Amino acid sequence: MSAQYSSRRWQEPAICRILDANLDRAREGLRIIEEWCRFGLNSGSLAQECKQMRQELASWHTQEIRASRDTPQDPGTDLTHPKEEQRSSIEQLLQANLCRVEEALRVLEEYGKLYHPEMGAVFKQMRYRVYTLESNLLTYRRHQLLERSHLYLVTSASEQLFTTVEAALQGGLTLVQYREKTADDTERLSYAQKLCQMCHHYGALFIMNDRVDLALAVDADGVHLGQQDIPIALARQLLGSQRLIGRSTTNPEEMRRAIDEGADYIGVGPIYETPTKEGKAAAGLEYVQYAAKQATIPWFAIGGIDPSNINEVLGAGAQRVAIVRAIMQADQPTLVTQYFLSQLTRQHTLRSIEARVTQSHV
């Protein structure tokens, strides 16, 4: 540490025991988060931030504090909670450990004031750094998963809604949008909550169609906006920087505007005429070709795409597609999802090979 300890020696060992336990708790939690940043997200910067905070915590974890440890007499070693015994998703694991670190730092901040004149201020600032880490971690994970997602399921009304969505998730789907235009808000909220939990259980992103308020209410990963919905800037102000915002586009002008306004991804279509967008003329494969050359953010071809025409869409330059009826009305949603993913993966592999060959001839 940079400063000397206070000359006042503590006769009450409980203070040191509290500091010892929470220094351990904070360091352990940060290590768990660091491992995911390093191996799960491949983010050197986030892993380094965790490591740096662990090292700072270690510098305060002195022999005097460690010597106070009395594990056999600690009644807290037998305390547990059923939720601590299981983790259903990476999101839940990370959130549990972020909360663990933040709570430990708060304890260190308060009790540290009694032990060392600088300790309270140091751990207060570190707690704010963990809040920032939490925000950056969630944002980074969402954007990374968006980049990796090549198949996007947009739901339609169905008596088998949950069964169909879960079957698609079991097939490898990583991106779902809940779209419901006729139900009342009570039903939408209930369905959105269940779908969001389901998606996060499978490690998938959950997007709410149109409704920023419901996206916030269910802790969705983002919202998808049509051309007649609120401006992207207002949605960003309400949602914050952590969540994703998508925008439907039907022509190059709408595409450019959505990108300029800060959309995280766009829909490109409808490629073919579809009852989902009744009355809208098909944008056609020409728009796909334009997006393949001009779009600077992830984009999904959408509108009437099914197993019979997906290769035509991919041939025009699409690398990501959004599907509605072909999955929602499928007898075997898992198999249909796997078929789409196999075609998208094959196309992505071919494009990667072509790019390497082109680069080798430059």
UniProtKB/TrEMBL annotation:
Enumerate the UniProt keywords alphabetically.
Magnesium, Metal-binding, Thiamine biosynthesis, Transferase
Q: Which cofactor does it need?
A: Mg(2+)
Function, in words: Condenses 4-methyl-5-(beta-hydroxyethyl)thiazole monophosphate (THZ-P) and 2-methyl-4-amino-5-hydroxymethyl pyrimidine pyrophosphate (HMP-PP) to form thiamine monophosphate (TMP).
Which residues does the annotation say bind 2-[(2R,5Z)-2-carboxy-4-methylthiazol-5(2H)-ylidene]ethyl phosphate?
274-276, 304
Q: Which organism is it from?
A: Allocoleopsis franciscana PCC 7113
Which pathway, per its entry?
Cofactor biosynthesis; thiamine diphosphate biosynthesis; thiamine phosphate from 4-amino-2-methyl-5-diphosphomethylpyrimidine and 4-methyl-5-(2-phosphoethyl)-thiazole: step 1/1
- Ranges of residues in domain Thiamine phosphate synthase/TenI: 151-327
Q: Where is this region: Disordered?
A: 61-86
Query: Pfam families of this UniProt entry?
Result: ThiD2, TMP-TENI
Q: Where does 4-amino-2-methyl-5-(diphosphooxymethyl)pyrimidine bind?
A: 177-181, 209, 248, 277
List residues of the ThiD2 domain: 17-135
What is this enzyme's EC? 2.5.1.3
Which Gene Ontology MF annotations are present? magnesium ion binding; thiamine-phosphate diphosphorylase activity
The UniProt family comment states: Belongs to the thiamine-phosphate synthase family.
Region (Unknown) residue spans: 1-129
The protein's matches in InterPro entries, at most eight in alphabetical order, are given as: Aldolase_TIM, ThiamineP_synth_sf, ThiamineP_synth_TenI, ThiD2, TMP_synthase, TMP_synthase_cyanobac_bac
- Protein name according to UniProt: Thiamine-phosphate synthase
Annotated residues for binding of Mg(2+): 210, 229
Please provide one cellular component term from the Gene Ontology annotations of this protein. Answer: cytoplasm
Kindly report, in one word, the top-level EC class recorded for this enzyme.
transferase
